[in-house]
Structures are given as C-alpha cells and as structure tokens.
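Supplementary Note 3. Input sequence used for the single-chain structure prediction.
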Amino acid sequence: MNQLKPTSVFFIGYLALIGLFSVLRTSEASAASASSPPRESESQSESINELYEKAKKEGGQLTLYIALSARSEEIILPLFKKRFPAIAVNHIDATSDKLVARVLAEQRGGRIIGDVFGGTPGYLAQMTEQKLLAPLAIPEAAAYPAMLKGAEWVATDMQYFIAGWNTSLVKKGDEPKQFEDFADPKWKGKLIAEPRDFQLLMGLAKRKYNSDEKAVELLKKIAANGVEFHKGHSQLIELLVAGQAPVCLTCYSHHFPPRMKKGAPILPLLSEGVGEVGGSVAILKGAPHPIAARLWARWAVSDEGQRAYAQAGETPAHPNVEPAEKVRPETTHMLTAEEVKEFPKYEKLWKGIFQIR
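The predicted structure, written as discrete structure tokens, is reproduced below.
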C-alpha cells in the first residue's frame, strides 16, 4: 500500500477545513436571514390591522413629537385611539423648532424618547441633515404626488398663508382684494404678521412674479406701512378676532372657519395665498416603538386618517380628501419641498425688508 506523503496529508486537511468553513458560513447566513427584519416588499403588503397586532406585542406605546392645534389634538388623537384602543399615545406638543431641539438633545444624550416627528419641510430638512429620521416607505404614500413626500416623510396637511381682516375695523368697500393692496398708505399702522413667514416673499417671487426684485419691491412698500409682528399664528388670529389689529398679513387660512362659526367678526382673503406642506409624519431613527410609529404613519396619511384631519379643521394633504371648509385660495402660489434649500436666502431677504432681528 502506498503511503501518503506529508504534503498530500496537509493538502487534504486544508480542503477539509475549507469545506467546514463553507458549511459554517452557510449556516450563519441562514440564521442571519431568519432573524433579519422583513423586506420592504413584505412590509408593504402587510395590512394595517396586522401591523396593529404587532404594535400591541411591541408594548402598545407611542410618543408623538408633533405640533398640533388644540382642536386637532382634541379630534385626531381620540379618533386614532378609537381605531387602535390598545395603543397608549403620549403627545408632546410644542412648536416645531422646540421639538427639533428636543430631538437633538435626546440624540446627544443617547436616550431616544420620541417615535414620530411631524413638521414643515424646513424642519424636516434640518432633521434629515442631522440624520435623525429613518427611511419611510408605506403603501398609503402611493396616492400622494412627489411634491408631498420624501424618502423619510409624507405630508399630512397643507397650510396656506393668506391675509384677512376684522370686519368691525375695515369698512365695507375698503376690503383688500390682493397682496398688492397692502402697499397703499391707507393701511399704515393696521397690519400684523408672523415674523418667520418669509414664505410669503418666496411664493410671490417664485410663482406670482417670477422675480425676486418685484416681490422685494412690493414688500418694501408694505413694510413702509409699519407691520407689527407677533410670534405664533394662533396668537395672530386671536389678535385679529379681538380687534387688536384691522388686518393680518400672514394668517393661516384654516384658522378662519372655526372662529367665524363662533361669530368672530373676521373674513379671509381667499383670492390668493402662498401654500406649503403644513404638517408631515416621519419616524425618528432609533425610535423605541418603531412598529407603533409605522402604524401612526400609515393611519395618518390614509383616507381614514386624512378625514380625521379634515374633521379637525386641517387641510388634508391627500389629493382625494377635501377639507371640511373652504380654505384653499383660488390662486395658490405653491412652494415645493425641494425648494427648502432656498429658505435661508428668502429668510434673509424677508428679515432685511422688515428689519427683523
């Protein structure tokens, strides 16, 4: 019998080791595949009821970082709770800038508390830049046009910057018809606005005039009439209702109907306005309850959720869900999410025109 040479023994052993490592790698790959999260195609086909069952097993907790009006909080959250009674909702209500600061602080501290974030494109851009949002692909988003969604978010509601007036302080026949009317000296000392609403300038420049120069020229004339600024659109509309000022230059259109129904002496200027995404849904990266967060996202942008937004007096972003009241201007100078990169430019111009620090 021929004996194997030492080199042959070594070679056979080497082949055996390779075979063993191959088997181990195959086993590890199978195990990893079994424990990995479902593919997007699988989660896309999952029904919202199936997702609800998973959210219950996750713990049934959900923390929302979304700026909601008092009316929206009273209507939208209870409707979600009625639909998904096993989910306990903790809503942290604050202005979007404070919510962004809160998320940043949590990230730096290494303890994520929030699950869902909602805000306008400007704040979403900040969150995306800081890599604070998780990718969001949900089947309900298919109904939305490209301008109302991104890789990490989907719009929930729209907002329109319009002018409005107090009918007790503006005589019949003197009502403004368009933004250009406010350049008239007769409005001197009679205008109030929100100091952060540079979107008015941007919308006029990009959509109405297709010219920065013409838009700036108009607003300089309006600024000469001494615009008084107040932070917060809810405060702005209440000042108008109370007769503290005759005209609001940058009110939200959806703030008018509920107050008018209660007898407030105000009217909106709906001949034109500047529109943008008013609210959205996004899931925070590292969210402690990602399944419940996804449940909220899918419900909020679904037909059912959007009807809840309409019931609350918001302007639904869903193309096929109408708002409860007439709040969409006849002519809308619409800003797109992609134009957020130009916000700093127009914010600087706006502050310069009105000498806002």
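The first helix runs from residue 6 to 35. The longest strand covers residues 154-166.
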